[in-house]
Amino acid sequence: MKILILGGSKSGKSSTGQELCRRLAQGPLIYWATMEPCDSEDEARIVRHIEDRDGMGFETIEKGRNIRDAQVPADSTIMFDAVTALLANEMFGKGCVDRDAGLRVIEDLADLSGRCSNIVCVCDEIWRDGTVYDETTELYRRELALVCRKLAESFDVVGEVCCGIVKCYKGSLNEILD
After folding, report:
1. pLDDT digits (tens, 9 = 90+) for 44-92
2. pTM of the prediction?
3. 7: left (phi over 0), alpha (psi -120 to 50) or beta
4. How far apart are CA 176 and CA 16, in angstroms?
5. E strands, the chain, in order
């Protein structure tokens, strides 16, 4: 099963994704963390996420770029948190803007999703606010939207979380969440 969960900041995406993974898993549970902390706010978010999944049985992979390098068991269920940070790391991680990062992320996530039993990818919806930003930010937002559109095309389920409530746009989570 391949699931894409979208939502705003602190919408419940990660908690929903973790629960989906726990219910789907028949092999190893992997929490794939992509955030590379830049400040104390990032560090606090990481601590909160670690505390949230404590005791759930997740093995953690902390890899925020070059994700094809990581080995995962074929029967694993991966909670991939998040596409948003992966693209930022790939696009801006070398001190310049990598305009090919979006296509690489699409290919890398397609590769990863083909090497495990289940994957739940979460992504922040940062392209819907109607505000026009500087050129670099707009490029990032367009690339993130492209990555999510491509994942949505190939994934089994696409849902949005708002206030912890999931609305599916493609496929269904009823049999998993009930």
Report:
1. 888 888 888 889 999 999 999 999 989 999 999 999 999 999 999 999 9
2. 0.93
3. left
4. 11
5. 2-7, 29-33, 58-62, 77-81, 118-124, 157-162, 165-170
